[in-house]
Amino acid sequence: MATLLEILQTRVEIVATEFEEERLRLRELVVFGILTLFFVGVGLTLLTLFVVVLYWDSHRIAVLGW
Description:
Distance between the termini: 75 Å
Mean pLDDT: 90
Order of helices and strands: HH
């Protein structure tokens, strides 16, 4: 009976460890997702500024409206 309880306790510890690892991996995934969105936003802003500067002399109002 004691062996069965030890096996059960070991299994519960393994499940708890796996749950903790998954929680940490999910947190890491969320952080990387937020960083990705931030850098995509910065990239789009820089691309917009580049297009505005590129067409500043000829189509200034059209580019700013776009």
